[in-house]
Design brief:
The chain is α+β, with helices and mostly antiparallel strands. It has helices at 2-28, 44-47, 63-71, 76-82, 90-97, and strands at 34-41, 51-58, 104-109, 114-119, 125-133, 138-144, 153-163, 166-169, 171-174, 180-182, 184-188, 191-197, 203-212, 220-230, 233-242. It contains five helices and 15 strands. α3 crosses α4 (76-82). The longest helix is centred in the first third of the chain and has 27 residues, at 2-28. It is flat.
Length: 268
């Protein structure tokens, strides 16, 4: 009887291990039609997650096709034609029959288990080498290529913090309106941004943009934005002046941007 119970215990243990192994295989499997374009190790001490940020893109993307799309033709069919692919080429036919998949940004642990994931509306993405040092944490920058092919717009960069095993996409509070919205940094002919150290030694995001005055006049306005992280929140303060800026000019000196006030306005 004791021997029978021993064999039963072994059988249950083996079955449990098989279930765990099978479950693990399901979790770590890359979604059908995707491949890992980028796998960026996390700063474990600050994120408290030992793993990586992964960019998952359509598995059919070849290096030359992806490069061409990123440079401005964010459409696989037009890009393949530009590369000299014939319309009866199997790769062209594949994208013609089955539209390109949207990029996914995934937080993964060391074993490859998916902890969190977000799908964007565009096919290409990139985790930037640059991060924002917030002292006890690190903010990651993820650029989604939403180029329209004109070269005037290169994409939007989203800011993510890792907390409680999740990738938290950040919002920013406008200190004039006390309203918050998703923090998105844009590079285009008339917009740009940089990461810089302020006078107190804290890293801050500087963003510049030029647009027509409101209400509509012949005057153009330049907005100088300083975006900072304080007390667990991002705040944006803006100084505007009549003028013009575009990407052919040097990025403005930090003295052009408003100084950070002693105390940020708290969100309501």
């Amino acid at each position: 009887m004791r021997l029978i119970r021993h064999f039963n215990s072994v059988a249950v243990l083996v079955l449990a291990n098989l279930v765990v192994a099978t479950h693990g295989a399901e979790v770590t499997t890359i979604p059908d039609g995707y491949s890992i374009h980028q796998n960026v190790p996390l700063h474990g001490a600050s994120s408290k997650v030992r793993g990586s940020l992964q960019v998952l893109e359509d598995a059919r993307l070849t290096p030359d096709l992806r490069e061409t799309m990123w440079a401005g033709l964010n459409d696989p069919l037009a890009s393949l034609e530009g590369l000299g692919y014939a319309k009866d080429d199997p790769l062209y036919d594949s994208f013609n029959r089955d539209p390109i998949k949207a990029v996914r940004i995934r937080l993964s642990d060391r074993a490859g288990h998916s902890l969190d994931e977000r799908e964007f509306d565009w096919p290409l993405g990139q985790v930037e080498d640059e991060t924002v040092n917030l002292g006890d944490r690190v903010a990651y920058l993820v650029t989604i290529n939403s180029s329209n092919g004109s070269g005037a717009y290169t994409g939007d960069t989203y800011v993510g913090l890792i907390s409680d095993g999740k990738l938290r996409w950040q919002s920013v509070i406008d200190d004039k309106t006390a309203k918050g919205k998703e923090l998105v940094l844009t590079r285009s002919l008339k917009e740009d941004w940089r990461i810089a150290d302020d006078a107190a030694g804290h890293q801050t995001i500087l963003a510049v943009g030029s647009h027509p005055n409101r209400p509509a006049t012949e005057d153009l306005v330049v907005d100088y934005n300083r975006i900072v992280f304080r007390d667990g929140e991002w705040h944006r303060i803006t100084r505007s002046e009549i003028g013009f800026w575009d990407s052919e000019h040097d990025f403005p000196d930090q003295s052009k941007f408003p100084p950070w006030p002693r105390r940020a306005r708290r969100s309501q």
